[in-house]
Amino acid sequence: MPLDTSTYSLALLRLDGRRWNELRRMHAQISTQPSADGSSYLEMGNTKVICTVAGPAEGRRAGGGGGTGGDATATVQVEISIAGFSGVDRKRRGRGDKRTSEMQMTVANAFANTLFTHLYPHSTILITLHVLSQDGSLLAACLNASTLALIDAGIPMSDYVAACTSGSTSSYSSNDEAADPLLDLNGTEEQELPFLTVGTLGAGEKVSVLVMESRVQAMRLEGMLAVGVDGCKQVKEILDQVVRGHGKKSLLEWLLVRNRARGAPGGLDGLHNLQGLLISYFTKNDVFTVEPTGCDRGDEELRAIAREK
After folding, report:
1. Residue 238: which pLDDT band, with cuts at 50, 70 and 90?
2. For residue 115, what are the β-bridge partners?
3. pLDDT above 80 (res 3)
4. pLDDT band at 103, cuts 50/70/90?
5. Rounded to whole angstroms, how far apart are CA atoms 168 and 94?
6. What is the pLDDT of residue 12?
């Protein structure tokens, strides 16, 4: 069914209510699978991906997946499995699927140049991605989920790899000079409009991944790339918040266990004591900028962690 873009010129709103430069809702978690060395779960709109990382492990080579590396550096292997129920067509893709193989090689090459693979010679880093739902930006979601899982695994890298898609409001055949660039296309938009996937390192403008499989007018390419790079900066901030939030929660849990081991009082007094210890730890190590404005700040979060323990 053709994409109806007739109302865009009137309200400048897309079919899902977003403006041209707005991202879809993005949700992510780290350490979702304790059995893996690193794991993550990420949602970009209705696109949902689970990622696990195994390694660095000695001498393991996964068959059928995209990979890169040598004896002097670690080999990055990527395996992507797409569930049959993830898309509308319910098509089950085998191991030899061409598009899946291309995505595996793209993800492997991106992280082979970002990870410090020279620290792990004669070893393999296996990234496994499970696609649960597809609604556009699939490659970008795989790259973002892999970044979080690799951070969770503790594998050093130069910076975040943040990715998103960008497109144009007009197709190649229409040749509309007034076409606007679009950020973070959904599945319906990707079927009808030209788009590209761009990935950058950190908050800068250094492009590490650039994939485009559709035809577009040359004069629109610069605008699409500029919007995509700006979107990657927004994605990087979201990923950084997820990592920092997980680190803060882990530190709270560790301080709570140490506080109990030292025989600190329980109840609300123990929570206040823990909060003061946390503020002094942050201030001493310059981890975060914390404003100690009272003992009641953060009580609910501390109670929640105490109940979990």
Report:
1. very high
2. 157
3. no
4. very high
5. 32
6. 73
The more confidently predicted of residues 21 and 261 is: 21
User: Is the torsion defined by CA of 300, 301, 303, 304 positive or negative?
Assistant: positive
Question: Two tokens at 23?
Answer: 């991202």
Q: Please report how many Cα atoms fall inside a 13 Å half-sphere around the Cα of residue 36, on the Cβ side.
A: 23
> Tell me, what amino acid is at 84?
G
Give me the count of residues in the chain: 309
State how beta strands 207-212 and 195-201 pair.
antiparallel
The whole-angstrom separation of Cα 207 and Cα 48 is 24
Helices 218-261 and 267-285, axial angle in degrees (round to 10): 130
* Antiparallel, parallel or unpaired: β 161-168 and 26-30: unpaired
Quote the tokens at residue 213. Answer: 């499989």
pLDDT higher than 80, residue 265: no
For residue range 43-89, list pLDDT tens digits in order.
Answer: 999 999 999 999 888 865 545 566 665 578 889 999 999 888 887 77
